[in-house]
Amino acid sequence: MTGYTLGATQVADTFAEAFPMRFARLLITAATDAWAYEAARSATGFATSVIGCKCEAAIERRLESGDTPDGRPGVSVLLFAMDREGVGHRVLDRVGQCVMTCPTTACFDGLPEGERTVGLGKSLRYFGDGFQASKVIAGQRFWRIPVMEGEFLVSDSVGVGRGVGGGNLVIGAAGDEAALASAQAAAEAMRGEGIALPFPGGIVRSGSKVGALTSKSMPASTNHQMAPTLRAQVDDTLVPDGVGAMFEIVIDGASEEAVREAMRRGLHAAAAAGATHISAANFGGKLGEFHFPLDELRDPP
Amino acid sequence: MTLTLTLRAEPPARVLAPALTPEELCGLNGLSVAVLGLRCGGETVAVGDLFEVSGAGSEAKAVVLEGDLRRFDGIGAGLSSGEIEVRGDVGAWAGTAMSGGLLRILGSAGARLGAAYPGARVGMTGGEIVVTGDAGEEAGAGLRRGLIAVGAGAGAGAGLRMLAGTVIALGGIGPEAGLGNRRGSLVSGRAVELLPAYALATRFQPPALRLQLLRVRELGLTVDDALLHGTWARWSGDVTELARGEILIFDEGEGAP
Questions:
Q1: Does A142 touch chain B (CB under 8 A)?
Q2: Per-residue pLDDT tens for A39-59?
Q3: In a shared domain, residues B128 and B48
């Protein structure tokens, strides 16, 4: 295994391969930080992989009351899909089912500079059954939808931007506890503005490969090359010697630069936390538009 | 430099001033502005005779008017973009039939602020009007869209036959407000005697109003935190129309400023 070392960590000579995606940023506010977080958790549930969930979503960051449109505490959420239409469908579903239903919330567009938009309140308003009302405030249209608690306030539409999905790091260590601790440290360091880590806690233990050895119909199956338990029974194992467990962190970002810098933060945090090996997943470079060589992440953030 | 018109002396008669908008004055130098004519009583008077003109109509599309302009009617009427700032009181019909832009009055306004022209069903269709002082009678009459925010009180008959949009009077709206209101919002920071055509719906914290009050604060009005965080009574009406309109009255019992 060539590459370079960071202290006791071996970094592989490889790259992460990522894809262009479209994304929206929702600002969810509520009477308390806890309710805003509850709505955001619900809205970003079952959104780990675009293959299985039709979108990838995660909490971007918590917002102080001074940083939200209505002066209440909030949470910003990023949602990624393969195209604008996909973003539109998923945003509408999730805000309708998970945000509008949550006590005290309101939902705003966090990407007003987006080059295009998708409708949100302009469709959700029909839930108001004719009793909905709109207000144009500072040039932006909002919908007031009467609900049992009072009113749900939602932006008429939300901006859609061009993002990058599928940046990743694979983090390994001798034992599963050490590998998980390193991955957790990396995930913690990677979170920030413009970054979504869509998997539980930001970490994937079941990385996949495209297709399957045993089926022509399955779109994805376990990454047997990185499964430590299969090391002795497959010819093409990629599990390095001395590694007993590996975790992947998938990164979706608002820009190529945001993903690269998140990977840099994660790589150095994982190394400092005791990872023995760090690698990345790719498809040979033929599928994804964006490549993130680990060699370019050698300098600390 | 922003185009600034400073009143020289009180005019001998009422002046119609709808021509003093950024759209009309954009790109004109001070001399060109000074020779423009305004109707004053039965005569036409040059702007330069009434005002001292400084600066030029800039690309920023902003005009400043200074002085006691209570004899000037129709300031900002028909405004569709840009900003007019008035440093002083203005007469009647300010912001009539506006469709966009911002009219900021650092003083008080006369009757029919942001209203419809006589005989017209529809008045203001967009934009924002902010008045730091009082507004006269029938502010927002025929309002279809947009925001009229008054820092002190609004006179009788605010929101007369309004179609939609919002009229906010932090110091309270006057009597007979919202007659014939279809979908509009009237907001009163003080208790008000309502027409019998309104019925109490509930007391709550209106989320859209919070956003509007924050916008009003951004535009320069002093908005007490109690108004942002307090409870408002929602009265629905006018029941002789659609009953989709509302008058929101601050619940002074709960943390009045």
A1: yes
A2: 999 999 999 999 899 999 999
A3: no
Among residues of chain A, what percentage have pLDDT more than 70? Answer: 100
Domain presence at residue B257: no
Nearest to B196 by CA among B182, B177, B170: B177
For an interface test with B, the pick among A125, A132, A136 (most B C-beta atoms closer than 10 Å) comes out as A136
How many domains would you assign to chain B? Answer: 2
Q: What angle do CA B34, B63, B224 make, to 5 degrees?
A: 150
Q: Helix, strand, or coil here: B198?
A: coil
Give the A:B interface size as CB pairs under 8 Å. 46
Our CA angle for B161, B247, B133, nearest 5°, is 85
pLDDT at B56: 76
A116 and A128 co-located in one domain = yes
Nearest residue of A to residue B185, measured between CA atoms:
A135
Report the residue count for chain B: 257
Q: How many domains does chain A have?
A: 2
Tokens of A27: 């600002």
CA of B96: how far to CAs of A170, B62, B116, B125, B173, in Å? 65, 18, 6, 10, 19
**ipTM confidence:** 0.93
Between CA B17 and CA B78 the distance in angstroms is 11
B145 CB neighbours in chain A (<8 A) are 136
For B186-228, what is each residue's pLDDT tens digit? 999 999 999 999 999 999 999 999 999 999 999 999 999 999 9
pLDDT tens-digit readout, B70-115:
999 999 999 999 999 999 999 999 999 999 999 999 999 999 999 9
Residues of B in Cβ contact (< 8 Å) with A128: none
Rounded to two decimals, the pTM is: 0.94
Distance, in Å, from the CA atom of B25 to the CA atom of B6, rounded to the nearest integer, reads 15
